[in-house]
Amino acid sequence: MSGHLLHRQPILRTPDGIGGALPALILIALFFVVPVVALLLRSVTEPVPGLQNYAILFGDGTYARVFFNTFLVATVVTAVTVIVAFPVAWMLAIMPPALGSIVFGIIILSMWTNLLTRTYAWMVLLQRTGVINRTLMDIGLISEPLPLINNLTGVTIGMVYIMLPFMILPLVGTLRAIDPMTLRAAALCGASPFDAFRRILLPLSLPGIAAGGLMVFVMSLGYFVTPTLLGGTSNMMLAAMIAQMIQSLLNWGLGSAAAFILLLVTMALYALQLRLVGAKRMTGGI
Amino acid sequence: MKLILTGILAGLLAATAAQADEMVFTSWGGTTQEAQTKSWAAPFEASSGIKVLQDGPTDYGKLKAMVEGGSVAWDVVDVEMDFAIKAAKDGLLEPIDFNVVPKADLDARFTTDHAVGSFYYSFVLAWNKGAVSGEPAGWADMFDLTKFPGKRTFYKWSAPGVIEIALLADGVPADKLYPLDLDRAFKKLDTIKSEIVWWDSGAQSQQLIASGEAAFGQLWNGRVFALEQDGADVGATWNQNMTAADVLVIPKGSKNKASAMKFLAAATSPKSQAMFAEASGYAPINTAAKAEMPAEVVKSLPDAYVDGQINLDMNYWAENRDKIAERWYAWQAR
Asked: Do residues B202 and B262 both lie within one domain?
């Protein structure tokens, strides 16, 4: 099996010049690098020069809690997304291509629907007087409305729904590349379906899970809209806290420091992803 | 990046606004801004020929970004009064030219060197009649989970109101509220924290109460008035109603300052204030406005419920805004 990998030829060569990429590079420099530097400067100059903003962020229990919440939500969302996405990706991988592309289309279509619309739809479904609670109470399954919104449950449901395509897409790529004969071979050798999954399919799909998982995790870390609308104040995440510092407290030094920390964490995770999975796999080449 | 983008967009907007005889008015959206557009902007456009563009919602972060970035896209902004006092101190606002804006009849409580009143309002206790059995009589009932079970909704942002409500409910006399005993207030709020749903916009407060998602809550009286007009099944009590005010300010560096001053003069005139009060249920800040209003409208305004009314102390809040906000958000996040 490793034989044909060794003989694979690189299809794309690294381009020699960067001329064609220049407009994009200028755009990024102007609208990303410059503001990030400004952000960093603000975080160490407002209200007075020094590292006091970082000291406040790391020294205060409230902010520690928000950091913890942010990682908790991102972890839970990533874990649930992997579990929900895997069967879908597997189904897509083994489906006849014609049917598969229809299902694929539906998944992609959901990504094109406005984020706010989708989140508000969840509010209507999940609130105490919402469709889900009303139905469950009408058929007598529960007597009190379930707390599905303004808490971690609401945030998880809303965010997993939004993150699913980002998990499914890389996973399908990985799963399609797995030779189905390996599973047949496992069955022939006496492995139960669960064993075949655990010892063959899962290890082989790990690169896809890692790529999708890290993408979902990193996106979740900075998420704003869904946690704000579906979560309560006690599961506040970093992005909402930054918005509060900038908009409400007008404490831009502190807000910039928090934003810079979020950026650093995100970039560290991205670097980790590059090392673990490799840039080629992340960008789609298997 | 957002700030720079905002700055550039603001610059573009300001550039287009400066070209013609135009100005930009920014408020909080919803039924309130609709009433402001109809009662203030429309007659002003007709009489002055200056076009008033509507923007919103008010965002203090954006306001600060515009002033500091030197590209101010908003000419008149509706803000909470405690913010205005603080912002004036921070140098974010233009002083009002009282040669253009007649001051004589303006309610002195809501007029400063850098702001004129927009309207004033009361926080009242409102409830969904289908979700509450009995009638809550005052703020203390919002803290009585046995007598009045169910979710209660409060204003999410750190602002005059909720702290005072907690202290009143805990037995602090209305004339002894200030300086605010924050420890005591947060301890009282802790007792109902799990039952609180926060609203962050007037429209959301209406939706929560009208749907019964929250059984009762602290609402702006104008929003309750609008719900009643729509025939929603809501009750409200004016007992212990708490007044606060919105004011109109001009951000420092406004490109259409002269038009903005004229707009302020028009918006605070007795006639405009009367029209707005009639449309919104909020009280006029021009003392001559009442003469222009039908008697039954006058009866429905906070002015008619001064018995037991509490004036939230805007100067205290302006002075302590940051300190309280820090504790408020830390407590919320717990």
From this structure: no
B334, A65: Cβ pair inside 8 Å? yes
Q: Could you tell me the pLDDT band of residue A100, with boundaries at 50, 70 and 90? A: confident
Q: Is the dihedral of CA B118, B119, B125, B131 positive or negative?
A: negative
Query: What pTM was estimated for this model as a whole?
Result: 0.82
Whether residues B238 and B314 fall in one domain: yes
Task: Give the SS3 label for residue A142.
Answer: coil
Cα distance between residue B150 and residue B142, in whole Å = 10
Any A CB within 8 A of B61 CB:
yes
A267 CA: distance to closest CA in chain B (Å): 17
pLDDT at A4 over 50: no
B153 touches chain A (CB under 8 A): no
How many Cα atoms occupy the beta-carbon half-sphere of B168 within 13 Å?
A: 22
- B259 with B184, same domain: the answer is no
Q: For the structural domain made of A52-98+151-282, what CATH number should be given?
A: 1.10.3720.10
| β B310-311/B152-155 pair status | unpaired
Is the domain of B180 the same as that of B111? no
Whether the CB of B133 is below 8 Å from some CB of chain A: the reply is: no
Q: How far is A189 from chain B (nearest CA, A)?
A: 55
pLDDT digits (tens, 9 = 90+) for B108-125: 999 999 999 999 999 999
Q: Which domain holds residue B238?
A: 121-244+308-333
